[in-house]
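Input record (one chain):
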Amino acid sequence: MIDFEAVSVELGDTSVLEDVSLRIPEGTFVALVGPNGAGKTTLLRTCNGLVSPATGAVRVDGRHVMSASPREIGRLVATVPQETAAVFDFDVSAFVAMGRTPHRSRFETADDADRTAVESALERTDTARFADRSVTELSGGERQRVVFARALAQETPVLLLDEPTASLDINHQRRTLALARELVAAGKTVVAAIHDLDLAARFCDRIALLSGGTVLADGPPDAVLTADRIESAFGVRTAVGTNPATGSLSVTPLSGEHAGEHRVHVVGHGTGAARTIGRLAELGVRVSAGVVPAGDVAAVTAEAVAREVVTAPPFEPVSDDRFAAAADLVRRADAVVVAGTLGAPNRRLADVPERTFALRDAPDGHSSRPLATERELLDVLGRSAPAEPTAR
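The corresponding structure, as predicted from the sequence alone:
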């Protein structure tokens, strides 16, 4: 449905897009993600004819965008822009009806098809109750939904969304992207520039990751949103895991320094171990963990943020090779942290008195040195942790 072929765009003396090639099949929901200035909005604007590529070509449904008339583009592509400031004092129903402009001549009056399209768009975007109000009286989020309604009323095969959830509350964020998914299921092609990586992974079929005006990766969310690629694009370490409620990818930025100076091995399982693993990773420590029962919340957390993790089947004896792998991690660690309940194998792993700590109450009978917080552990190891935020 959409074909970006070696597209390069220059705005003034600045190169914004460079040799971007991307093919988007019909009936696909694609998210454009990347840092500010990556070229997401510019790429959308080449698709609706508002920006002319310096080189390359953009085709929509086989038509060269730059050679198509505004009316032809208006019948192919509808856009929800990032900025939705209302300049003129139209009521909402009249504003949404402007989406029908490409379908009739200048002096042609609205017909039943136009009125049906407008009414449907208002209902689907939960804006019908605003129909008689002025667009200028609406909040930013309400106005964003009305602009979405205008795009729906346009009834095009392609819908472009530029940060469609930026000014919406969490309820209407979900409803907006769920509606986009419904449109895709009905055969439309939707391309959205989205900052929220979790929302992009949850609702979109494919993700194109842009950085520096080029496409770093393009494909299914789990193939594109890896910790290494996200760090390359955004310059921040992240934990990439699974949202337990939706089953989709979840991306959590980590504030610690890259790599960190010390290795800390965490033994134990359950929520206490998961919390400790997550907090140490957030502080930039090289965390390892194990032996952890596969599927345990600590294993899930460790697989998302730890450098190395050793798991074993739950409710079964720990095999010699699994124990040996965890023992090797302990030998390479600067400290061992006891967190949560310990079985016999983990008690043996934690039996390093001079280097074993417990950040909470140690299991009964274990002689680990208690500490209050992960930061205190870093102080003991001689590492300067990031400062606590100042209360105001």
